[in-house]
Amino acid sequence: MDVAIHDSWKTHLKEEFEKPYFKDLVAFVKQEYKAHQCFPPGKDIFNAFNFCGFNDVKVVIIGQDPYHGPNQANGLCFSVKDGIPHPPSLVNIFKEIETDIGNPYPKSGDLSHWAKQGVLLLNATLTVRAHQAGSHQKKGWETFTDAVIKAVSSKKENVVFLLWGGYAKQKSKLIDTSKHHILTSGHPSPLSANRGYWFGNKHFSKTNSLLIKTKKDIINW
């Protein structure tokens, strides 16, 4: 696994790449990809950073784990490759966008166009073994992605963090709320959404309102 990450991030994360835990993580991931089918493809592992440079980050969405089915994960949380059926959480995200801001339900589940507008689509764990959810958790990825969140929090201002579900909400302790905005709601998964914890959160229009207040371009969701 080469750390093929956008240069703008290297400045802020170079210390992480030198730490023993990260070297152990790289060794683990290389071995896993050699011995098992894993997702996303190696070249896509750092897509969240490569589609959204550090200087461009305006919004952060935090997921937990990549999709573990064939051809789904593309390195961006909640996103799937073009032509792949939309997983249930993504369906509910698109439904909320439709009712919140009126954008029609899209054919493609690829969210790279969000990332290119400044949305960091960050999974806490960046890799997974096929058909084994959570199989690469607690191997060092979370330490790395926590460092990413801290770097964004300490070195930027007026970023909107969207924390969906209990796991993402735990990350609020890494964020300086005196200079950033946090919006929380239930997770878009059917279990949470069908209990009334997701639909109607209006996070997409609220995010754009916050961006307007800080004189930033809105996101075309």
Automatic annotation (TrEMBL):
<dbReference type="GO" id="GO:0005737">
    <property type="term" value="C:cytoplasm"/>
</dbReference>
<keyword id="KW-0234">DNA repair</keyword>
<dbReference type="GO" id="GO:0004844">
    <property type="term" value="F:uracil DNA N-glycosylase activity"/>
</dbReference>
<keyword id="KW-0378">Hydrolase</keyword>
<dbReference type="GO" id="GO:0097510">
    <property type="term" value="P:base-excision repair, AP site formation via deaminated base removal"/>
</dbReference>
<dbReference type="InterPro" id="IPR036895">
    <property type="entry name" value="Uracil-DNA_glycosylase-like_sf"/>
</dbReference>
<feature type="domain" description="Uracil-DNA glycosylase-like">
    <location>
        <begin position="50"/>
        <end position="211"/>
    </location>
</feature>
<comment type="function">
    <text>Excises uracil residues from the DNA which can arise as a result of misincorporation of dUMP residues by DNA polymerase or due to deamination of cytosine.</text>
</comment>
<feature type="active site" description="Proton acceptor">
    <location>
        <position position="65"/>
    </location>
</feature>
<dbReference type="InterPro" id="IPR005122">
    <property type="entry name" value="Uracil-DNA_glycosylase-like"/>
</dbReference>
<dbReference type="InterPro" id="IPR002043">
    <property type="entry name" value="UDG_fam1"/>
</dbReference>
<protein>
    <recommendedName>
        <fullName>Uracil-DNA glycosylase</fullName>
        <ecNumber>3.2.2.27</ecNumber>
    </recommendedName>
</protein>
<keyword id="KW-0227">DNA damage</keyword>
<keyword id="KW-0963">Cytoplasm</keyword>
<dbReference type="Pfam" id="PF03167">
    <property type="entry name" value="UDG"/>
</dbReference>
<comment type="similarity">
    <text>Belongs to the uracil-DNA glycosylase (UDG) superfamily. UNG family.</text>
</comment>
<dbReference type="InterPro" id="IPR018085">
    <property type="entry name" value="Ura-DNA_Glyclase_AS"/>
</dbReference>
